[in-house]
Amino acid sequence: VRFVESGGGLVQPGGSLTLSCAASGFHFPGYYMRWFRQTPDKKREVVAGINTISETKVYAASVKGRFNISRDNSKNTVALQMDNLKPEDTGLYFCNSAPAFEADWGQGTQVTVSS
Fold first, then answer.
1. Of 34, 5, 20, which Cα lies nearest the Cα of 92?
2. Distance separating alpha carbons of residues 108 and 96, to the nearest angstrom
3. What digits encode the pLDDT tens for the residues 15-64?
4. CA-to-CA distance for 51 and 70, rounded, in angstroms?
5. CA Rg value for the chain
6. H/E stretch holding 113
7. Phi, psi at residue 88, to the nearest 5°?
């Protein structure tokens, strides 16, 4: 199992970024997928989730209305469109399935929101 996250960077408050995650080593279309955020104090929280056929999307209250999760089962990828970014969105972003492959977390992609 492997997850490769990309698309992070430094952005000013109010800006946008799109994160992408490429998954391999398991039957991606059969798994609920999530994006997680690890804050500077090392806490990891769920940011967004999407079911297998993209009919159900769930967001943390702090990002609802600003982030959009999507997936492409033909490419085994999951994306996170992030708009109107705030400094508190800063963190290391990971993707994983639910239930998570706990031994196979990727390297994550760093998002820094700062002026």
1. 5
2. 10
3. 999 999 999 999 999 999 999 999 888 889 999 999 999 999 999 999 99
4. 10
5. 13
6. strand 109-113
7. -75, -5
